[in-house]
Specification:
- This protein is α/β, with parallel strands linked by helices.
- It has 14 helices and 14 strands.
Length: 328
């Protein structure tokens, strides 16, 4: 079981604080929990939050010493962070633990010096303040999350869900991550480079969401799909389809299709022994060359290397059980 310590820095953002346990806690691998999540803070007990809710945190920072991954969630405190928290994060990073932040938790990682010389992101509304205070960090204010080796950062609020799903996918594969996404009624794993939708307001509720068309397309990824075909299913023009697709997903229809096809290919590589040409065909990528090109662009691995790295194997002495492996 992968051990996760979630550090709450007061005044904590309660939504962010709930995300790791909500997402990681729903991860089940071979009938067993994939993660043990413990929320901790420098001073256990009642925790100040940014709202009216009262939260009790039972664990101290000793939980960090026992963790494989340490996550700092959002906080209204962006300076003068408790030195005990900073020391625990530095120690965790020095020991090679994976360290992550959600939303303004990036300010805590930056104050600990863990983001210097790295790419990172945070909530877009705080990006100017962040860049001013931490010029040594290569801030990417317009993305959902950044995976920079053993240090990961996410944008605000729901982007923390995307980050945690990305962690599940890294640890246990696309099948497990998409199963968790369905359980928590979230979008499938989204690429970290997707925009935070900073300047685009939510479209008015008209009862004309393209969710049904996207579901229809997901059932037909193996078949040729075009913007015209998607527009016909949605009973709108291609121009309207493209506009509304971007409003609802942040991607064009063809970008969204390609992303979903690569996800399907990853699932097939992880969960089946199908030949590469069949994986390409069933995922809609058509040819092994196309499969190789798009998978390499997304993961830096060839299809065969990806299968070797992420294939699940039976446990010794338990033909029915499986374990997940991921590259170090």
């Amino acid at each position: 079981m992968h051990r996760v310590a979630v550090i709450a820095v007061p005044p904590a953002t309660t939504f962010d604080l709930s995300i790791p346990e909500l997402v990681l806690g729903e991860t089940v691998v071979d009938g067993r929990p994939g993660y043990r999540v413990r929320v901790c803070t420098a001073r256990p007990g009642p925790l100040a939050t940014g709202g009216s809710l009262q939260v009790g945190v039972p664990h101290g920072l000793e939980a960090v010493d026992d963790a494989d991954t340490v996550i700092v969630t959002g906080t209204s405190a962006r300076e003068d962070i408790d030195p005990r928290v900073l020391a625990a994060l530095r120690r965790a990073s020095a020991e090679g633990k994976r360290v992550a932040s959600i939303c303004t938790g990036a300010f805590v990682l930056a104050q600990a010096g863990l983001l210097d010389g790295r790419s990172a992101t945070t909530y877009w509304a705080m990006s100017e303040e962040f860049s001013t205070r931490f010029p040594a960090v290569e801030l990417r204010p317009d993305v959902l999350y950044v995976d920079d080796g053993n240090v990961l950062t996410s944008a605000g609020l729901s982007a923390g869900i995307d980050l945690c799903l990305h962690l599940v996918r890294t640890d246990y594969g696309a099948v497990a991550a998409n199963a968790v996404a369905r359980l928590v009624v979230a979008a499938p794993v989204r690429p970290g480079g997707q925009a935070q939708f900073i300047a685009t307001p939510l479209p008015p509720e008209t009862g004309t969401s393209l969710a049904a068309t996207r579901a229809w397309a997901l059932d037909r990824l193996h078949a040729p799909l075009t913007r015209a075909g998607l527009a016909a299913h949605a009973a709108v023009s291609v121009r309207t389809l493209t506009r509304r697709f971007h409003d609802e997903t942040g991607l064009s229809p063809l970008q969204w299709l390609l992303h979903q096809r690569v996800i399907r290919a990853q699932e097939l590589l992880e969960a089946t022994d199908l030949p590469m040409d069949q994986v390409a065909g069933l995922s809609g990528l058509a040819t092994t060359d196309s499969l190789r090109q798009h998978l390499w662009r997304r993961t830096g691995l060839t299809p065969s290397a990806y299968r070797t790295a992420f294939t699940r194997h039976p446990e010794p002495g338990n033909a029915a059980g499986t374990t997940a492996r991921s590259p170090k």
